[in-house]
Design brief:
mainly alpha; MetI-like fold; globular; disordered C terminus; MetI-like; membrane
């Protein structure tokens, strides 16, 4: 249940970006032809957003198969084994390391991810989805009628169970100062949060480092992924396909294995990057560039050929076409992809546990330290601050994409 809750927001961001890029004229033409709302959804809307749904599906598979933190924290005490935790145990906590068995288990991870990647390629190659064309239109709101309140209750119930109640638990433990079922409401105070997070030099430094890495790493990752996605989408050559596979290949490997490999490669001679933020940035990009690539693929797939071809016919260079045509049309999907990278980097646990240290602490490393020591109040306080930061980023991103959708895509394209 927790892993499903964790994957839903990333799927939602990709799907919502695809829906905002959908041409409403297609749905309107279906309704004018006499099709019902359900038939329009099945025959027009879902095929139109198939690339975004495929991206969300692939991300969900990647998160589920390669997840380490949730199974380790919840499953290990309950004696529930999963492949990702078992691989980490074989490589890290077993002496001598059972590399051969870990590689064999990694083959299943490669199989699952490869199957999901193949399904996404099938969706993208079918070519039956709609793209953003040269004219803008606003989507029509569908009246659910008697299903309005059941739908609202379903959504509100999901938000309550997946978000509000866990956050309330974090806040109560943070303000109470310790974990207990008997809450003394008169003793709740912000002093515990302030002292644990903002008055502790190590925690405050870890928070600053994580925010800096999230901003810079998210920007570098999503821009690089966008350029690769454009090249792959427009060239359709064996080299382009090879580059696409190479970018997504790290997703088929355990995050722990990649982090250990980066540490062995860059920590010693001749690079000597141990204890620096640069090795963390490289590690985060290596781990999360595949997710950025999926988000960029969804954004690129929503751009039609009409406007780029018109730009080329008008004499614009490819760089100008990229800046004036592709970037404005891809911005909603790219912003969602940046938010995905930012949240993943700021809350990373696996790479942070290996690549970070006392000289370059980050939030994930600090959380692992606190969890090991058993200080649940400090853990809840740091988690509460992290939730507030990531929630603020999500709210800003959703507000921006909604505003961009209302203004219309066509108004943002010009100057060619």
């Amino acid at each position: 249940m927790v892993m499903a809750f964790y994957a839903v927001p990333f799927v939602f961001m990709n799907a919502s970006a695809g829906l905002r890029n959908l041409d409403p004229a297609l749905e309107e033409a279906s309704r004018l032809s006499g099709a019902s709302t359900f038939r329009t959804l099945r025959k027009v809307t879902l095929p139109a957003v198939a690339p975004s749904l495929g991206a969300g599906f692939l991300l969900a598979v990647w998160f589920g198969v390669g997840m380490f933190s949730i199974p380790a924290i919840i499953g290990t005490p309950a004696n529930i084994d999963v492949i990702s935790v078992r691989i980490v145990e074989l490589l890290t906590f077993t002496f001598p390391p059972q590399t051969d068995l870990a590689i064999g288990l990694s083959g299943f991870v490669v199989l699952f991810v490869g199957l999901a990647y193949w399904l996404q390629l099938r969706i993208l190659r079918r070519g039956r989805y709609a793209t953003v064309a040269g004219k803008g239109a606003r989507a029509k709101t569908i009246d659910l009628g008697t299903w309005k309140w059941p739908a609202r209750l379903l959504v509100l119930g999901y938000v309550l169970v997946s978000t509000i109640l866990p956050i309330v638990a974090l806040v109560l433990v943070s303000l109470n100062g310790f974990w207990t079922p008997n809450i003394a409401w008169d003793n709740l105070s912000f002093a515990a949060v302030t002292e644990a997070v903002f008055q502790d030099a190590t925690t405050l430094k870890a928070l600053r480092n994580s925010l800096l890495l999230g901003l810079v790493g998210g920007l570098i990752g999503i821009l690089g992924a966008a350029m690769i996605a454009l090249y792959v989408a427009r060239k359709r050559t064996a080299l382009a396909k090879g580059i696409d596979v190479a970018v997504k290949l790290p997703a088929a490997i355990s995050n722990m294995v990649i982090a250990v490999g980066i540490l062995l490669l860059l920590a010693g001679a001749p690079f000597h990057l141990t204890g620096t933020l640069l090795i963390l940035l490289i590690g985060y990009l290596a781990l999360y560039l595949p997710q950025a690539s999926i988000a960029a693929d969804a954004a690129v797939s929503g751009v039609g050929k009409e406007l780029p071809e018109a730009s080329a016919i008008s004499g614009a260079r490819p760089s100008r076409t990229f800046r004036k045509v592709y970037v404005p049309l891809m911005i909603p999907g790219l912003v969602a992809g940046w938010a995905l990278l930012f949240i993943r980097i700021v809350g990373d646990l696996t790479a942070s546990a290996i690549l970070a240290g006392t000289a370059n602490p980050v939030v994930g490393f600090r959380i692992l330290e606190v969890f090991t020591s058993g200080s649940f109040a400090l853990l809840a306080s740091l988690s509460t601050v992290l939730v507030l930061i990531t929630a603020t980023v999500l709210v800003v991103v959703l507000a921006y994409t909604r505003r961009a959708s209302k203004l219309g895509v066509s108004t943002r394209v010009g100057g060619v």
